[in-house]
Amino acid sequence: MKPSLLFFTLPLLTFAGCATTQNNVQSVTNQLRKMVAMSGPPSVDNAYLLSLAPIHNVKGLVVADPKSPNPSDTAFGAGCARWLDLQVGGQLGLETSPPWEQLDDARRLQGLHDLRLDSKSGVTLINDLGVSHIALGTFTKGQLVFQLVDASGHNVGVPLQLHGSNAQIAAQLPQLARQMAKQLGLGQAELPAQIPLSDSDLTFIGGLPRRSSALSASDVSRLRSLAAKDSLPDLLRARLTRGGPNWAREQNALYAKAPHNAIIVADLLDADANALRPHLATIDALIASHPNNFMLAFGEERRHAQANNAALRVQACERMMRLARNPTAFFELSEALGAQADSIRRGAFYSDMSSTQRTQVGKIYPRRQAVAASGVHLFPTDAALWASLAEAATCNGDNSIAKSSLQKSVTLDPAQAKAWNWGIQQLFEPKWGGSPTELVAWCKRAAQNAGHCPGAIDATQIEAALDADDVQAGDQVEPILTTFVRNDPNNAGALRELGARYHYFDHAYRRAEKMYRRSLALNPNDSRTLGYLADITQFVHQDAKGAGQLYYRSILVAPGNGYAHANYARWLHLNGRKQAAIGEAKVAIKCGYTDATHPVWQLTGVHP
């Protein structure tokens, strides 16, 4: 096959299936931006925030890891604190105790390396979280002490103390939990009478991270064995070993251990609400009976987000805001409002939207910008909130705020992939008011920072954005992708796109094939990479059988990919199966593929 024909097989658009393409979505949002711009200066709906009046006199608890003069004792103290935090903090009577992911985020935003806190840092932490109390501790050999402190920095009650060996202290933790619950005013706390974990178990648990992290095989094995004993190691098992063949069964087993623990319910819904399908009706009833519980509202919001139910997601977020105006509440409400606008628009162009839809969307965008702007005002070091503000301001037609917010986000956190992708896909594109110079500079920065957020920056969008007609910076694609792959060598999309440049532009087929095979090793079911490798197999190696297998695989893994159907139709025709090729070409059209440069139309006589 001539190289010129190889060039024509490179798709100009990304087709993810038979639905609206990404380019169409961008055009839709561009139309909305023009509509807002024509209506005058962007507005911000601060009245919406005022309508979310906070609920007062709600309680919550964080149990900090005890300070210890001996570093070797810190793990045991942390294990005790985690057990107390889960058992007492998870009580339904404590409305604003935070899920552990949010607790760890708050710690990170304060620049704290751990949760071994003093009074000043502890009070700052709970005020940022909207939590009423923190238990600050110390542990020395033979003595564990916790002092309950409120959000004003005042001690509550007397210090709670346990004495004895580590084994004796571990056995007395349920007693201390009951005393702590009493000091918090919990009259009917559901607390275990005994703890089935040994002091060595607690030491092991206290040495583990609080959020997803690579664990050794021995650590995973021990966690799974301890999960049968108690809900604490079971929760850590769920958080640190996501997925697996027994995922749903393990999630349901954890829920069965503590169906009324709000931290556990929230965490399980966040991880995978669908895995809890047998219990969702019961969980819904629990949420309905405790409408002022932040953790349950968070879990409900995560469930609705997974189900793409934007309206119910917004309602859950509004409850979260009324309970605790913390970074999570602001961020999730901003994102939920964005999803709500998308669900109303449903990918329609502005001219195709009804007057009711235009009115609804026109109300939501100012609300979202108000929420995100207030969030960064209260939490100015939260990079994710700044990224959300950039999106909100873009949709609300406030490009100046959007651009400065995006810059702030990645300055605070170079690993903020959400910000990098928004700049590439939307904000710095000329159709959004950016310029080719701005876009190229942003893509270069994204490639240089790709190693900070491996696998998260969308290299496909870099290629598409720079190659667009209104940018005409295609000569920048290959050097930028080369930088990208050097900094993030396991990014399957970047490897594929760099391979495509070698393949279709440089005709460096060996280098291209190497990139494709590296990409497929990371993502073996990527339809586009399979199709590109099939082109080399067909037209360079002249291996028709091997190419046919790859083309067919690219359809099996993505049946809605019209470009894959067009390539397979071309292969069928070139291999004498002309009637089958005609049928396959028609399927490509049904899936939305209409690129007139593809040779399949001339070969088959089918025209889009």
Q: Could you tell me the strand content as a percent range? A: under 5%
Strand order of the largest sheet: 1-2-3-4
Overall strand count: 4
- Report the average pLDDT across residues: 89
Based on helices, strands and strand pairing, what is the structural class?
mainly alpha
Please estimate the helix content. 55-70%
Which stretches of 5+ consecutive residues score pLDDT under 50? Answer: 1-41
Instruction: Summarize the biggest pleated sheet.
Output: 4 strands, mixed
**Alpha plus pi helix count:** 31
Strand and helix map with partners:
Elements: H1 3-8, H2 22-38, H3 46-51, E1 61-63, H4 74-89, H5 100-109, H6 119-129, E2 133-140, E3 143-150, E4 155-163, H7 166-171, H8 173-183, H9 199-206, H10 217-227, H11 231-240, H12 247-257, H13 262-272, H14 280-289, H15 294-306, H16 310-323, H17 327-345, H18 355-378, H19 383-395, H20 399-412, H21 417-427, H22 436-448, H23 459-466, H24 477-487, H25 492-506, H26 509-522, H27 527-539, H28 544-556, H29 562-574, H30 578-590, H31 600-604
Parallel strand pairs: 1-2
Antiparallel strand pairs: 2-3, 3-4
Helix pairs in contact: 4-8, 4-9, 10-11, 11-12, 13-15, 15-16, 16-17, 17-18, 17-19, 18-19, 19-20, 19-21, 20-21, 21-22, 22-23, 22-24, 24-25, 25-26, 26-27, 27-28, 27-29, 28-29, 29-30
